[in-house]
Task: structure prediction
Amino acid sequence: MSLVIKVGLASCGLAAGAGEVYDAIQKHIKKNKIDAELKKTACIGMCFVEPLVEIYEEEKKSITYGDVTPENVGDIIDAFSKGKPIEENVIISNILKGSENKTFKKQKRIVLRNCGIIDPISINDYLEKDGYSALEKSIKNMSREEIIDEIKNSGLRGRGGAGFPTGLKWQFAYNAQNDKKYIVCNADEGDPGAFMDRSVLEGDPHSVIEGMIIGAYAIGADEGYIYCRAEYPLAIKHLNIAIEQATKKGYIGNKIFGTDFNFELHIKEGAGAFVCGEETALMASIEGKRGMPTIRPPFPAQSGLWGKPTNINNVETFANIAWIILNGAKEYAKYGTEKSKGTKVFALAGKIKNSGLIEVPMGMSLRDVIYDVGGGMKTERPFKGVQLGGPSGGCLPAELLDTIVDYDSINKTGAIMGSGGMVVMDTSSCMVDIAKFFLNFTQNESCGKCTFCRVGTKRMLEILTRISEGNGKMEDLDTLEELSENIKKGSLCGLGQTAPNPVLTTLKYFREEYIAHIKDKKCPAGVCTALIKYEIIEDKCIGCTVCAMKCPVNCISGERKQVHKIDQNVCIKCGACYDACKFDAIKKG
Amino acid sequence: MKYKTEIDIAINKFVGKKGALIPLLQNAQDIEGYLSKEIMSYVSEKTGIKLAHIYGVATFYTMFRLKPQGKHIIRVCKGTACHVSNANSIMNEVNNHLNLSGKEDTTKDGNFTVMSVACLGCCSLAPVIMVDDNTYGKLTPDSIGKILKKYE
Result:
């Protein structure tokens, strides 16, 4: 029996060197005349051990290796062929004992069902996994109302962040009377720290396309757009290939499955504007205008793209649709909590051990997500906070780790579920700095239409900068809160309405850190450069000169084998000396 | 005008299509590396779209550049995961290595343009930079020199 070898070649894998590994395998197979089929796949979600290689004769007896290099991949293949697989760096396996993976065990993969398993640019791979059979079922056996009811009953809510019930959204678009309707997929994943949509588009583009076609059929649209950010070139490439394949097979085009249903699908590349994730701004951008939000009502379901009824859903939402149609609303609603059904994909990043993509049933606690599925902290430093929902979300402290992951429970804390970015921080992160980081982001990305968002975020950023430089006053904290409330009230779209969240949550849960910056002029985490100082500990310095060589501004002086000195007037506090010193002879304080 | 034929081809490809301005400008930018005043006026003249509208769009989106840029684009990721993994030190090192003060973003020889981007979506490999279409992850300031050498 021949071997099957799969290499994960999504953006994250490629960045970790999977391309070289793929080439090395190809060479090795050819040179040693090994009977093996080398396949490409995308991201299985375990980005922290990329490059990943899966190897098997029968799919049920496979081993996935992590941290594979071009040098060791030959040995892995040879050992496997001899029936004595190498047991090092095994990430998942159903044949080796003791390697059941905790990360996988607690997950339920609906959206990510094919990611990292199939070749994303092979429609046959997708068809083998029941691909497009949900579309066939919808068009041949279900009425439009039945499809919408099925989605309603599943309890699926918009995965882009706001959590509006998807079935209801479809109903509104269905109800709108017009001869022309559009369906749009929002793939403008702009939240820094979130990469769920990228992974789904790279790893299983057909699942999103199938969901869109079903949606189009249900609401009566005959044209669709996928608005994808240009920073994701591989996702765009895979989408283009997938659309071409689906068109050839007749899933896109005229008279789909011999009915009167026609559908055409286009890709629109974004041009770099976070606000275009907001639906009215997104539509303006598709129309070729500046992406500025407009007042709702009218909602897109009444008057959207070019004034026609339009339905917009997020990538992850669409990726759920085919599964729900095939397995039924009841099956989907088995997962999750009363008001948040199904599963949610999260992008784990920051100081967490198993960073990458996971999909868990709603209702799991943050603690279980971070410690069980995510493997806990990467460093020896303790957990300090987790940032949920990107620039619109908030930072939650250790006391709130038992919060349950569903829309309503997370909203209660002041953060939001958002699109699913979860950045874990240890004590080396400063919360004032994090708040400043997000405010800087939203201030840059504010489109400038609403005064409170445009000017208010700028004023807030100035105050935060002042605090981080040790020039803050206690009254500043009240001003920040007052401005926050006004920005929330006075902004038209979600960007402004949620921009103060990172500040409000850090003020609520990490207030003492703000006070330390203001009263003690200290940054407890040692991040805010104006408040820290690097000094050489005379007893420990052996005069190796490494720090002086590393210093970008040449502010460290001293002869070889003599104690060195840092000129504080010139020092830019980059920390290069601190990182370079092997003798712990530099202190940060 | 330089690249007139190429620009004409781009215009003809999009003319009459709905919402074509942004892809048209992206196309034009790919040709010359940036959007010059001359190109924007020409596109306006040929398509009938008002110059003010074109300029409005070009200045709204961060991907459009109104200044010439280097042969290689270095995108330093400043997303959340990269930020908490000390992306600032990476940015400093890139600027240091290329002798850029942080005010100007393109090297004197026109080989590199440095920009910071909000997120490249490779958060588990933070901190990350992208040079042209290649992504490099798990960086330390020490690794920068070796990477940039490939493009010098």
Q: What stands out?
A: The CA atoms of residues 50 and 56 of chain B lie 10 Å apart.
